[in-house]
C-alpha cells in the first residue's frame, strides 16, 4: 500500500526541487505556507542543497518566531553569519517590527531618537497608517543590504501565509499611493511652500521637501524590488503544505494570490507524510495515512504542472546540520518508503 | 415648415407628456428599446447576461461540491468562480458607465428639445403675430396683453399663445389623469372585494388531502 504513493506518473513533473537547483538565474527564493507545516525545515534543506551548486547562498528568516537558530543550533542575528560547517551558506534573522524601529530611530536623530520627532514622527505615522508598510520598509532595507553583499541566491523563510501575501502585494499599493502624493506635492508644492515659508518647514518641525525625498527613495527601492520579484527568471515561490484540508486550502489560496501578483510558483513540498511499515498495527497511523492519501491524490490531480515533492514524517526532530543534510537529500532524490 | 401655431402647441404637448410620464420612465423605455436593437451595445449586454448565468451555474456546482472530499474539483471550480466573478464585476462597471452615458445624452437631447425650444421660439419670433384679433372686439388693455411683449398691437403674440397652450394642456392632462386614476381605483377595489370573497386556499387544500387520505 505504501508503495502506491510514489507513483510519479509519466504526465507529472519531476517530484523534486531539482528544477530550482538547475535554474541558475534564480536570485530570490521564497518558502511559504501555513504555520507549522515545516517551512523552516524545508528552507534550511533547500539552502543546504543550493549551497552545493551555488557560489554563495544566504538564508533569511522574516518570521518573527525565529526558527533558524533552533534548526541549526546556532545563534543568528540581524547580520549575515556563516553557518557552522559551511563555507558558502550564511543565515540571518530579521524582525519586521524591530527593523522599522531602527529605521525610525535613524531618521529622527536630529530631535533625538527618544521622542520620534521630525521626519521620524511622520514616518512613524505613515508606518502605522498603512497596513504592511512596516514589513515592506524593513524588506526594502534588507534588500538594500543584501544587494551590497553579493550573494548568488537568497532564500526567504517567510512568516505564515497572511503576512507573506500582505507584504508581496504591498509594493504595488504603496507605489500607487506615493505616485499620487508625489504628483500632488509637485503641483501644490509651491503653494504649500508659500504657506510654510522658504524652508518648507511643517508646523511640527518637519521638512516637507526632505519628507518627499525620503518617500520617493522608498518608492524607487520598492518598485525595483517589485519588478525583480515579478520576474520568473529571478524569483520563485516554494509552497510548503501538509496533506490536510486547511493546509491545502491555504496553499490553493496562496497560489492563486501569487498568480495575481505575477509571482512565479511551480513547486509544492508536501511535508509530514506518514509511511507506516507494512504490517504495522498502529491504528492512528493507518487512519491518518488513508486521509493523507486522499489529499495527496487531490494534490496530484490539481497541481499537475507543479513539481510536487513528497517528504516523509520522520521519527526524530529535524535539527542540526547532519539531520538537515540527510533530510535535504530527499528534496532531490524522491523518498522511497521502507518495504 | 408647419405653422408656428402648431409647432408651439406640439412642443407644449410634448413637454406635458414628458412631465406626466416622467423622464426616468422614458429613459428606461428607450434604453430597453436600444438594447433590443442589433447594435454592439445590446450584444455586449446579452454576453453579460450569459456570463451571469454561467456564473450562477458554477456557483451552484461549487456549493454542491464537497471541498474536503473532492478538493481538486472544488479548487478548479473555485478558480473558475473567482475568475468569472472578477470579470463580471469589471464588465458591470463598464456597462453601468455606458448606461449613464446613454442617460446623460438622452437628458441633454430632451432638455434641448423641450426647454430649449420653449425658450428659443418665443425669443426668436417675439415680434411676429400668431394671428390677428378681430378689429374692435376687445378693449385696449386686452389687446395690449394679447400682444405682450413685442408683437404688434391687435395681434396675439407667441408668448401669449404659448401660455394659452400650456394652460389648456395642463387642464386636459389633469382631467385625463383624474379620470384614469378613478378608473384604476374602482377596478382595484373590485378586485379586492373578489379576493376577500375567495376562500383561503390552504383550508381547501387541507380538506382535499384529508379526503384523499380516506
Number of helices of chain A: 11
Strand order of the largest sheet of chain A: 3-4-2-5-1-6-7-8
| Distance between the ends of chain A | 10 Å
Q: How many beta-strand elements of chain B?
A: 2
Mean pLDDT, all residues of chain B: 87
* Overall 3D form of chain B: elongated
Strand content of chain B: under 5%
Q: Mind summarizing the main beta sheet of chain A?
A: 8 strands, mixed
Number of distinct helices of chain B: 7
* Biggest interface, CB < 8 A: A-B, 11 and 11 residues
Any idea what the radius of gyration of chain A is? 23 Å
Report the biggest beta sheet of chain B as strand number plus sense, adding barrel if it closes: 2 strands, antiparallel
**Unreliable parts of chain B:** none
Determine the N-to-C terminus distance of chain B.
82 Å
Rounded mean pLDDT of chain A is 78
Keywords (chain A): ATP-binding, Cytoplasm, Endoplasmic reticulum, Hydrolase, Metal-binding, Nucleotide-binding, Transport, Zinc
Family (chain A): Belongs to the arsA ATPase family.
GO cellular component, one term (chain A): GET complex
Binding site for Zn(2+) (chain A): 282, 285
Describe the structure.
The complex is a heterodimer of chains A (339) and B (214). Chain A is α/β, with parallel strands linked by helices and 339 residues long. Chain A has helices at 18-22, 39-53, 68-72, 96-107, 118-129, 133-149, 161-196, 208-229, 245-261, 283-302, 321-332, and strands at residues 28-33, 57-61, 81-82, 89-93, 153-157, 235-241, 265-273, 307-312. Helix content of chain A is 51%, strand content 13%. In chain A, helix 10 (283-302) links the parallel strand 7 (265-273) and strand 8. In chain A, helix 4 (96-107) packs antiparallel against helix 5, helix 6 packs across helix 8 (208-229) and helix 7 (161-196) runs parallel beside helix 9 (245-261). The termini of chain A are close together. In chain B, strands 1-2 form a two-stranded antiparallel ribbon. In chain B, helix 1 packs antiparallel against helix 4, helix 1 (4-21) packs parallel to helix 6 and helix 3 packs antiparallel against helix 4. The interface between A and B is small, with 11 and 11 residues. Chain A: Pfam families: ArsA_ATPase. Chain A: Residues 27-332 form the ArsA/GET3 Anion-transporting ATPase-like domain.
